[in-house]
Write a structure and sequence with these properties.
This protein is an alpha/beta fold and 378 residues long. Helix content is 42%, strand content 10%. The model has no long low-confidence stretch (mean pLDDT 94).
Length: 378
């Protein structure tokens, strides 16, 4: 046990923590749960209570937003301690059925939604798209995202990207049915063995393509491939970076007006974790007729929507107001007609809150690619 304890302490650099409490002070979910990140880091030094800590329900309240890591003066990642504790439960098969089913689905079908791999390209029907072949040269290899390809509401995001790239004359191709979950939420749920397998398999698959760069639609995929796939041989960018380039180089022209007051919600996995703040705003600022306004809590201080960290498959026991509800109330206070996002999880959580709060007549949640679809001519 001493070896295991030393491994846990070293892996998460627990001795580097100075117990300043800035992690807990900045953690967005503390307003509605009992999660105290600082306390978990401190208590995890004791080998005798690791199992006890792993069984506390608060470890599932973490959304992996990384606010704690952003605020840590020692450069640590306290959220990883919670993920490590989740791993103890995963190894013992002691997780919620929804978590178990999502992980099993990733292993079987390459996605967490229990959908058949053979249906992964159904959203492409009637579109002018190309499926890349191994070794075939392509400038931009598009990685779509499990959530987008299988959710009918979100498929328009990928469909609009195809329209935009075709209109701009971009060389691009898709992976097709072989595309497999990036593993971002697998890691956040604590299934390290499955995550490592996905990293190995995805690296082998993606390196078989002769691509200059991979373009991800979801910030969760962007984070996983950019930061957790060290042997990937291609550059990884988020679609907002590519579209921003196309607008700046005058290769894409937005001609239709979208006369709306728009406020942008920074996704945690795009902003806090990868510092992509300017490109989404540059895109929205180029939409004719649109007025861009800002949340008070924006950029590094953006309020988490609670969609990450495996929360799509884990329900908190708290009855206090969801952070996504707070976010849409803030958007309403700004009199925004569109709450713009650049992440499928953000769209789902915030759209649910707009409906729950009865704000549907006043505003809508829209992914940037959805808004761009309204601003370009066919």
């Amino acid at each position: 046990m001493e070896t295991e304890l030393q491994s846990f302490i070293e892996k998460y650099d627990l001795l580097g923590c100075i117990q300043c409490g800035r992690c807990t002070g900045g953690c967005p979910v503390t307003v509605r749960t009992n999660l105290n990140v600082r306390r978990f880091v401190y208590d995890s030094l004791d080998e005798d209570i690791l199992e006890e800590l792993a069984n506390l329900p608060e470890i599932w309240d973490c959304t992996a937003c990384s606010t704690c890591a952003v605020r840590c003066p020692k450069g640590l990642k306290p959220l990883e301690v919670l993920i490590g504790l989740r791993g103890i439960l995963v190894e013992g098969g002691r997780v919620q059925p929804t978590v178990r089913d999502a992980l099993e689905s990733v292993f079987r079908e390459g996605n967490p939604w229990d959908k058949p791999r053979a249906a992964r390209c159904d959203w492409m029907k009637d579109l002018d798209v190309r499926i890349a072949e191994p070794g075939e040269a392509v400038e931009n290899l598009i990685f779509v995202c499990c959530t987008i390809v299988y959710d009918p509401k979100l498929q328009v995001i990928a469909q609009n990207l195809v329209r935009i790239l075709n209109k701009a004359g971009v060389d691009f191709a898709f992976i097709g049915e072989d595309e497999t979950c990036c593993g971002s939420e697998v890691h956040n749920l604590g299934e390290e063995g499955l995550f490592e397998m996905l990293v190995e398999d995805n690296t082998e698959l993606l390196n078989s393509f002769n691509a200059k760069r991979m373009v991800t639609i979801s910030p969760h995929c962007y984070t996983a491939f950019k930061n957790e796939h060290p042997d990937l041989k291609m550059e990884v960018v988020h679609y907002t970076q590519l579209v921003g380039e196309l607008l700046e180089d005058k290769k894409l022209e937005l001609t239709r007006e979208v006369p709306q007051r728009i406020v942008f919600h920074d996704p945690c996995f795009l902003g806090k974790q990868n510092h992509v703040f300017d490109e989404p705003r540059y895109i929205l600022g180029n939409i004719p007729g649109a007025e861009l306004v800002e949340f008070d809590r924006c950029r590094e201080r953006s309020l988490c929507c609670e969609g990450g960290g495996g929360k799509m498959w884990v329900e908190t026991e708290s009855t206090k107001e969801r952070l996504s509800d707070t976010r849409v109330k803030d958007a309403r206070a700004l009199e925004a007609g569109i709450l713009a996002v650049a992440c499928p999880f953000c769209e789902l959580t915030l759209d649910d809150s707009v409906k729950a709060k009865g704000f549907e007549e006043e505003m809508r949640v829209a992914e940037i690619l959805e808004i761009l679809g309204e601003a370009i001519e066919d």
